[in-house]
Amino acid sequence: MTFLLNLIPLAPAPYRAEAHPAAALTFVDDFSFDSLKNYVITGDAAWGSATGTLRVGGDDDSRVEVYTRLAFSNNLQARGKVYVPPVADIGPFDSSALALSDADGKIKYWVTIGYGRALDPQNFLALLRDDLWTAYAPLHVEADRWYHLAVDVDGLWLRAKAWADGEAEPGWQLQYQLDPDWTASGGAGFRHYGRAAAVDDLSLMDRGGIDRPSLQDRLPRPILDERPEWIDLYWAAWRLAWNHIRYGTPQNGFVSAYMDEAFDDNIFQWDTSFIAMFARYGADVFPGIASLDNFYRRQHPDGFISRMIRESNAKDVFTPDNPEAINPPLFAWAEWQYYELTGDSSRFVRVLPHLTRYFQWLKAHRRQPDGLYWANNLGSGMDNSPRDATAWVDLSMQQALAAQSIAQIARAVGQRDLAEEYQREFTALRALINARFWDDRDGFYYDLDDAGRFQRTKTVAAFWALTAGIADDRQASALQKHLANPQEFWRPHVCPTLSADDPR
Q: Where does residue 22 rank: exposed (0-12), middle (13-18), buried (19+ CB within 10 A)?
């Protein structure tokens, strides 16, 4: 077996100025350490001539690092293999990592497989920066088996994954924002802590080009020549989003990177759905759609998902019987919107059961006997609206939108029966909403009171009829007149939650 180091230039992406010069080094089994001039090795390491692997470590407290001396750009892919020994040879804190360091060897990132007997949790994939955890993902690790590790840096992100030899290569399991001044020019290699293990097959692909592309280089550029202040606002919004990327921990079990809503120490259901739809325009930069997985992971067996979940420990803020426990059910709509823009349907099969179970929970616990849905101010997200309804127009329409989106997702993955079931749900809800909430006199959708009478308070809740495809052409035209009326909703700030002609 060969211990290999390759540097291979790839075709530059649009933001890369030029390709990196090609270089290659190959070390075969019979090399001596004296000839290993392009590596820095600290700790115990020996060449296993019988197997062609580099043996590292020795006892429970061994720490070994093997780094190249070559310089790289910050546009790099690294791969390697680490061996998890038999159970009898595993120490209490054993871990093996694929490692990258900066030019001075001061800032080091380790993509680490942890398998020591005393580690909690015992099996994991973690990204460490100078021995501090920065990102984490659970990983099932088996003894006496080789594991592949892969790391990719592109100037903005470091992404990583691990998988057992012989298994299919997965997608990226970890991602982390790179330090703005960090460059992978100090070396690449392996790091091991604990008893003896083995590492092998190090390969590097240096794609070259600009080391640190700016955030603007990776995002859509708007053209608004007559409103430069809008351009400034646009980029400020992206920078704000970039500064609110957070990382899962062993304590909360969240995804490795997600978007935080920046309100408090909880994640919020519908806020996250809106953020995901914003972030889809930078889908290769921002972990927007993945943020929804934090809620799916905390879904109850009966389908309930709390509208607020604590970031510290992933505990629900509300119990299911609390009237404020839910938010508008926008998950399915956000998933479909992401797919429509990116063309990426890879999530659909996995998330579809979560979406249907949540729909059915709402149907069982938030639907009235007449088929319409109820909510409250906090749960609706419209906290300060003067609404005291029995039947809520927005939740009924949002549930119809969810049914339509689930039908579209099911159709996209070939689940025809499921698609037809939820298309029927949408059609029935649409007919009921138009029969009960629509006021032909005012040309508006109103909430209903206990007696089923219109509560003639004009709020933006009515306009979900346009988003959800509830209104027909005549109704949509009537709604448009309200929306475009400067005495109602076409205000300097478009548009207020309550019509401006309401004395409240």
A: exposed
Contact 241, 286 (CB under 8 A): yes
The span from the CA of 490 to the CA of 70, in Å, is: 61
The two structure tokens encoding residue 46: 């020996």
pLDDT tens, N- to C-terminus, the chain (504 residues): 333 433 333 333 332 323 333 333 333 343 344 545 667 777 887 766 555 677 788 888 888 888 877 777 788 888 989 999 999 999 999 999 999 988 777 788 999 999 998 876 678 999 998 888 888 888 999 999 999 999 998 888 999 999 999 999 999 999 998 876 777 777 788 999 999 888 888 888 887 766 666 788 889 999 999 999 999 999 999 999 999 999 998 899 999 999 999 889 999 999 999 999 999 999 989 999 999 999 999 999 999 999 999 999 999 999 999 999 999 999 999 999 999 999 999 999 999 999 999 999 999 999 999 999 999 988 898 888 899 899 999 999 999 999 999 999 999 999 999 999 999 999 999 999 999 999 999 999 999 999 999 999 999 999 999 999 999 999 999 999 999 999 999 999 988 999 999 999
CA dist., res. 202 & res. 24, Å (int): 12
Task: Say how many C-beta atoms besides its own lie within 10 A of residue 61's C-beta.
Answer: 11
Tokens of 397: 């329409």
Nearest Cα to 405, choosing from 434, 385, 429, 376? 429
Q: Which residues lie below 8 Å from residue 220, measured CB to CB, with a gap of 6+?
A: 281, 282
Tokens of 97: 């990592």
Report the candidate in 287, 291, 283, 295 with the shortest Cα–Cα distance to residue 338.
Answer: 283
Q: Residue 141: which of 94, 188, 73, 186 has the closest Cα?
A: 94
The DSSP bridge partners found for residue 82 are 147, 199
CB 392 within 8 A of CB 373: yes
Does the pTM exceed 0.70? yes
Three-state secondary structure string covering 209-273: CCCCCCHHHHCCCCCCCCCHHHHHHHHHHHHHHHCCEECCCCCCCCCCCEECCCCCCEEEHHHHH
Distances in Å between the alpha carbon of 396 and those of 21, 107, 211, 436?
Answer: 60, 53, 50, 11
